[in-house]
Design goal:
Order of helices and strands: HHHHHHHH
Helix content: over 70%
Number of helices: 8
């Protein structure tokens, strides 16, 4: 598989993830709660499931810088591909948030992840959530690829599950690119560091746990 195809796959997949997931938050806010919290959680889980089935054979459907770093630390992913993957994921996410800004200029946050409680609480939540997610991914993936029936269902389900119970507190991001994009597009940068650092630490912690 040519490298540019993998990069394009990660860009497109992360674009779809952020467009659908944060788009569900935006439309829920603007429609007076028509999507509901459950609907938002399911949207995130289902879009990841769909992208794994669509792109798993191409790039592995990481869609998440923390996942890419986790695969690298587990020695399932080449170091030379880490930066291109992460950059493509961030570009795809930012493009999705820019499109949502153009479509919904009246929305103030565009689905940005903002703690509703103490900063430490959200940091620990994001760390633990991503630790669990990465542990599941390492357990069901083939090498550095999330592919196949089991991977799609397992990964999509754990994302939806964690978003269901932790979303109202921390936003249940588990993905630096997913949080970076709406934060930049809406200029809500105050707590961005939580959603960059905690998911990466959680994903790296999952590697020795899996071993």
């Amino acid at each position: 598989m040519a490298n540019y195809e993998k990069i394009a796959s990660e860009l497109f997949g992360t674009f779809v993830l952020v467009f659908a997931g944060t788009g569900a938050i935006v439309t829920n806010d603007l429609s007076g709660g028509a999507v509901t919290h459950v609907g938002i959680a399911l949207t995130f889980g289902l879009v990841v499931l769909a992208m794994i089935y669509t792109l798993g054979e191409v790039s592995g459907a990481h869609l998440n810088p923390a996942v890419t770093l986790g695969f690298w630390l587990a020695r399932r992913f080449p170091a030379r591909s880490v930066l291109p993957y992460i950059l493509s994921q961030c570009v795809g996410a930012v493009l999705a948030s820019i499109l949502l800004r153009l479509l919904f200029p009246q929305h103030s946050t565009l689905g940005a992840t903002i703690p509703t409680g103490p900063v430490t609480q959200s940091f620990v939540l994001e760390l633990v959530l991503t630790w669990i997610l990465m542990l599941v991914i390492l357990s069901v993936s083939a090498g550095a690829k999330e592919k196949g029936l089991v991977a799609g269902i397992a990964v999509g389900s754990v994302i939806a599950l964690e978003a269901l119970f932790a979303g109202p507190i921390s936003g249940a991001s588990m993905n630096p690119a997913r949080s970076l994009a709406p934060a930049l597009a809406s200029n809500h940068l105050a707590h961005l560091w939580i959603y960059l650092a905690a998911p990466i630490l959680g994903a790296l912690l999952a590697v020795p746990t899996c071993k």
